[in-house]
């Protein structure tokens, strides 16, 4: 009887020990699994951040860059060339490039950024073809019809109708910035807009009867 009681007590002790060990085992398993769960969550957040950064980079790359406005108070092509006697100087105007190339024979010696006609109708079209600088030129004009004027104009067609001249200005000779900012893009009624110094350079240096070729 005494032996039986001892045996029962031993079985009870072993059962309690087994329960304790099982609990410890579960706790240990839980503590090991927690960091893995955090690692997975942290990795998920890291992946999200990386994806967002890549999406932001992609959006920035896809966003079209705004063209930089041309300084209409400065030469658009750097220092001007010094013309020499005997050079075969002529002006090559590209409506596609929106540029005036000052040429010596086949060689481009200077490039000006320009605005030619909007080409929306006959009244806003810059004619194409071969022309020559005409006798008419002046330091200022103002057109009440269009409510704008310009400095340093030089005629190349119809004796005062089609001109090289500065960016448009109001009656008080203040630059109309909305038009001036469009240098490098079509904007005029048919004339060729230039920065103020570029227009003055043509006024001062390009003589009567100089060839002007305008093309698309």
From TrEMBL:
<keyword id="KW-0573">Peptidoglycan synthesis</keyword>
<feature type="compositionally biased region" description="Basic and acidic residues">
    <location>
        <begin position="35"/>
        <end position="65"/>
    </location>
</feature>
<feature type="signal peptide">
    <location>
        <begin position="1"/>
        <end position="22"/>
    </location>
</feature>
<dbReference type="InterPro" id="IPR050979">
    <property type="entry name" value="LD-transpeptidase"/>
</dbReference>
<dbReference type="InterPro" id="IPR038063">
    <property type="entry name" value="Transpep_catalytic_dom"/>
</dbReference>
<feature type="active site" description="Proton donor/acceptor">
    <location>
        <position position="165"/>
    </location>
</feature>
<dbReference type="GO" id="GO:0016740">
    <property type="term" value="F:transferase activity"/>
</dbReference>
<keyword id="KW-0732">Signal</keyword>
<keyword id="KW-0961">Cell wall biogenesis/degradation</keyword>
<dbReference type="Pfam" id="PF03734">
    <property type="entry name" value="YkuD"/>
</dbReference>
<protein>
    <submittedName>
        <fullName>L,D-transpeptidase</fullName>
        <ecNumber>2.-.-.-</ecNumber>
    </submittedName>
</protein>
<feature type="domain" description="L,D-TPase catalytic">
    <location>
        <begin position="89"/>
        <end position="215"/>
    </location>
</feature>
<keyword id="KW-0808">Transferase</keyword>
<comment type="pathway">
    <text>Cell wall biogenesis; peptidoglycan biosynthesis.</text>
</comment>
<dbReference type="InterPro" id="IPR005490">
    <property type="entry name" value="LD_TPept_cat_dom"/>
</dbReference>
<feature type="active site" description="Nucleophile">
    <location>
        <position position="191"/>
    </location>
</feature>
<keyword id="KW-0133">Cell shape</keyword>
<feature type="region of interest" description="Disordered">
    <location>
        <begin position="28"/>
        <end position="78"/>
    </location>
</feature>
């Amino acid at each position: 009887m005494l032996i039986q009681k001892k045996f029962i007590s031993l079985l009870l002790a072993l059962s309690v020990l087994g329960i304790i060990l099982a609990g410890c085992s579960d706790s240990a398993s839980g503590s090991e699994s927690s960091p893995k769960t955090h690692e997975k969550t942290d990795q998920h957040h890291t992946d999200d951040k990386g994806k967002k950064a890549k999406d932001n980079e992609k959006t920035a790359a896809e966003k079209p860059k705004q063209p930089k406005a041309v300084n209409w108070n400065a030469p658009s092509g750097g220092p001007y060339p010094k013309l020499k006697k005997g050079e075969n100087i002529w002006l090559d105007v590209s409506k596609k490039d929106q540029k005036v190339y000052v040429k010596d024979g086949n060689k481009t010696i200077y490039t000006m950024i320009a605005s030619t006609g909007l080409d929306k109708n006959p009244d806003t079209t810059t004619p194409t073809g071969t022309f020559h600088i005409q006798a008419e030129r002046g330091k200022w004009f103002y057109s009440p019809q269009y409510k704008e004027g310009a400095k340093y104009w030089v005629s190349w067609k119809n004796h005062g109708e089609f001109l090289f001249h500065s960016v448009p200005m109001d009656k008080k000779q203040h630059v109309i910035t909305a038009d001036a900012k469009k240098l490098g893009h079509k904007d005029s009624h048919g004339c060729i807009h230039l920065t103020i110094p570029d227009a003055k350079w043509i006024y001062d240096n390009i003589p009567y009867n100089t060839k002007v070729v305008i093309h698309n």
